[in-house]
Specification:
The structure holds 2 protein chains of 2 kinds. By secondary structure, chain A is α/β, with parallel strands linked by helices. Chain A is built from 18 helices and 15 strands. In chain A, helix 12 packs antiparallel against helix 13. Chain B is built from 9 helices and 15 strands. The longest helix of chain B has 13 residues. Classes of the chains: A alpha/beta, B alpha/beta.
């Protein structure tokens, strides 16, 4: 147990890892001799294999990595610093090194650390700057010239921060603290049976699976041809986790609820053909999807990466052509394989249907680009009484609808519409304050707890009176106030 | 039931939550023969509760009714007997995610306090993780252990009664995460570091005052922690209300007004006064403006 634990802390080929530089993250799958672009630099990750997760590396010439030990900050020389900036004039001449000089230094392959030192030595104003200003100067230059990166093991914290920073549009602007609230409010834990409906690239699904640790059941409800799990794949879950994961098409929820469900109706239909790579047919296509996900941003960063993408694609196509050469033989095989996959898919769908039909799920999480009201009312049918549910929406108005409808239908108590604000702080001696920028919004949550539903709604005493959303007295007050 | 496993039916010995209405609930321990008083009358455990389904509506003696809910760490946080100030679910959520807790995690915590965070941690790290929690107040430590037993989670937690700043957590190199909620966390950073695994781990310290944060950050840096990050999370709760606003009389005839585009939402018209209704998410007049600063950091390899 202990040895397997430590074995998992070593970076291995094929692992899904997260690269970190400053506060920028990027998720990649580690492959030998594979060029990766990160923060405008080409990198080969080969040298990180067999190192521990959390290791920091320096990027050397040719994009190789070199393990970096902690620096002995040798600022032994007596520090000289000014008291204020009354005599510092911005004449643009304080740096004696020219652009070309710096470029030359870089080309010689001189370490970033030394370049920074040279910049300091050649700055006429450095000594007159205050101690704080000196620190800030060094920090800024270090950021620019010292190319270091840390390789981290993926987890919900890192991936949620990464997605919110890089591609908030893909996760409906779900900020990481909001995701954290969802997991807690829905009481996600090992051994439960959870229904997840998300269009957040599989990030919410991954976060739920991480909290369940491979114990229990997750049923992902998906729109369209198949579930999107690009972000889920980045977690690098062990194979065993996939046994706990089920999926069911949203388009069949209604027939399942009205007991007219049959897996045969449309699973052979156009959905499969429409987007074959969207369906989760085995490991290969999942990898391709993960690449697709991050491919788009790589293109943004540079054209070269596009070229790389193309070569990758074309090798894939070559293989395809290979198969086309022996068409007759393989076509049959392909058909068989497709049929096998469809059968497999149908079998999984029926399993998921059976799980849903028990109507005893322990929780429901919704975070999608769709209007949540109809989703909520339909999916809540599958949840057992006295279980929490959470709905995320980027906007609060649709959640007002959900709230009103839940009140009309009954079957839920302790409803709460909320939002969290997140504030970051700079904490430094004598310079502590909230960070300049904070996020404007991370979405809204509606949460509640299911209860047994009355057959006929009773408008009797007790709860209802105090629960009506708008006590008569208050209504009057508002009106009085207006008049 | 237990706090780490859902049960369908209420059993003797269970802790259940009696839900009377929003912001009005309390925990109750189910016992044959016992009775619980509510403002809607009495509930008899043997006949009204035990054997019933969680989430059921239970009619009290005076005809009013309540719902009985399955306990969760979040409901417990809202209902537990306070022995100290406690952490609420908003902070707990962020702590759980930022400490990267999951099934199997080994966690150190101090102080145990009223056990609000402890229950949430135990829920998340079950069934294979463990919580080592340290509380220097003897009575509080004992009370916490009693509660863990009652909630059937005592196999997942060890409570030690000692001063974490003087004696540490009593474990070395086994934790994936450490949480500190004590008045002088900077004095415990060294012990936190040695409690964490060799390969590293995460730490969080909760402090209400910025001066405490300052000293903690300094201690963290001095002990070689990296990625030191201080956060604050605030919860905004909204009331969902239907609001009616009167429309001003501009001397326009009623028919013209509705054609002017104002008639979209429900209009309650009477001869003299016209009002427009809309749904709104109303912020309460007061909200919690500050609980504490959360400082996170990573113990790295070297």
């Amino acid at each position: 147990m202990e040895s397997s634990q430590s074995a998992r802390d070593v970076i291995r080929e094929g692992d899904f890892v997260v690269l970190k530089r400053e506060n920028v993250f990027k998720a990649v799958q580690l492959q030998r001799r594979k060029k990766i672009i990160f923060e405008k630099q080409w990198i080969y990750l080969d040298n990180s294999i067999q190192q521990f997760y959390g290791s920091t590396f320096e990027i050397t010439g040719g994009g190789n990595l070199q393990p970096k030990r902690k620096l002995e900050e040798s600022n032994a020389e007596t520090k000289e610093a000014g008291a204020d900036n009354r005599n510092i004039v911005d004449d643009g001449k304080s740096q004696k090194l020219t652009r070309d000089d710096i470029e030359a230094l870089k080309e010689k392959g001189i370490k970033g650390q030394e370049i920074v030192q040279q910049l300091i030595e050649n700055s006429t104003t450095f000594r007159d700057k205050t101690e704080f200003a000196q620190e800030k100067y060094i920090k800024k230059k270090k950021k620019k010239y010292e190319a270091v990166l840390t390789i981290l093991k993926p987890c919900a914290r890192i991936l949620a921060m990464m997605y919110y920073g890089r591609e908030p549009g893909k996760i409906c602007q779900l900020r990481y603290d909001t995701l954290a609230q969802m997991l807690t409010l829905a009481n996600i834990h090992a051994g439960s049976k959870v229904i997840v409906m998300e269009t957040c690239a599989g990030l919410v699904l991954g976060a739920v699976m991480e909290r369940m640790g491979g114990y229990g059941v997750v049923i992902q409800m998906y729109p369209g041809g198949g579930p999107v799990r690009a972000a889920t794949d980045c977690f690098g879950f062990p194979e065993s986790f996939s046994d706990t994961l089920h999926e069911f098409p949203l388009s069949k929820v209604n027939s399942l609820l009205s007991r007219k469900y049959s897996p045969e109706i449309s699973s052979v239909g156009p959905n499969d053909k429409l987007s074959p790579e969207e369906t989760s047919n085995g490991c290969l296509s999942r990898q391709q999807m993960a690449e697709k996900e991050f491919g788009s941003e790589m293109v943004l960063e540079t054209n070269e990466s596009e070229a790389q993408e193309v070569t990758e694609v074309s090798t894939g196509e070559l293989e395809n052509q290979d198969s086309q050469d022996q068409r007759n033989a393989k076509d049959k095989k392909d058909n068989e394989e497709r049929k096998k996959k469809q059968d497999e898919k149908r079998k999984k769908e029926m399993q998921a249907a059976a799980l849903l039909r028990e109507k005893n799920a322990d929780g429901l999480i919704i975070a999608s680009r769709f209007h949540p009201a109809s989703l909520l009312l339909a999916l809540l049918e599958f949840v057992a009484p006295s279980r929490p549910f959470v709905i995320y929406c980027q906007y609060k108005e649709p959640l007002l609808d959900c709230y009103t409808k839940l009140r009309e239908m009954g079957g839920a108590v302790n409803l709460r519409l909320s939002e969290t604000w997140l504030r970051n702080y700079q904490v430094l001696p004598d310079r502590s304050h909230p960070k300049l920028l904070m996020s404007g919004g991370g979405g809204y949550l509606l949460c509640g707890i299911t209860v047994t539903k009355e057959n006929a709604r009773l408008d009797t005493s007790g709860l209802d009176v105090q629960k009506t959303e708008e006590p008569a007295r208050k209504k009057q007050k508002v009106e009085e106030f207006q008049s | 039931m237990s706090f780490v496993e859902y049960g369908e039916f209420m059993k003797e010995g269970d802790t259940a939550i009696v839900f009377l209405g929003h912001d009005s609930m309390f925990p109750v321990k189910l016992q044959h023969g016992a009775q619980t008083q509510t403002k809607y009358g009495v509930i008899r455990h043997s006949t009204d509760l035990i054997g019933k389904r969680y989430g059921s509506k239970v009619t009290c003696s005076k005809g009013g009714w309540v719902y009985i809910l399955h306990p969760t760490p979040e409901l417990w946080t809202m209902n537990l007997p306070h022995r100290t100030q406690i952490l609420y679910s908003t902070d707990i959520s962020l702590i759980t995610m930022m400490l990267e807790l999951k099934p199997g995690s080994i966690v150190c915590e101090s102080g145990t306090g009223s056990g609000s965070l402890s229950h949430a941690i135990i829920r998340t790290i079950a069934p294979t993780g463990h919580l080592y929690t340290v509380e220097f107040h003897q009575q509080r430590a004992e009370k916490a252990m009693e509660e863990f037993k009652e909630h059937k989670v005592d196999h997942l937690v060890s409570v030690k009664s000692q001063d974490v700043c003087k004696s540490g957590f009593g474990v070395v190199n086994i934790a994936d995460a450490v949480f500190l909620d004590i008045p002088s966390p900077w004095e415990a950073i060294g012990y936190a570091k040695s409690a964490l695994k060799m390969q590293g781990g995460r730490i969080c310290s909760f402090s209400p005052c910025i001066e405490q944060v300052q000293r903690t950050c300094q201690a963290l840096e001095a002990h070689g922690f990296t990625d030191v990050d201080t956060l604050e999370i605030l919860l905004r709760v909204y009331d969902v209300r239907t609001i009616s606003l009167q429309t001003a009389d501009l001397g326009i005839a009623a028919e013209d007004e509705s054609s002017a585009g104002l008639g979209q939402s429900a209009v309650c018209s009477n001869p003299t006064q016209r009002t427009l209704q809309f749904k709104s998410a109303v912020t309460p007049r007061e909200m919690v403006g500050h609980t504490g600063y959360l400082t996170f950091a990573t113990k790295s390899l070297f």
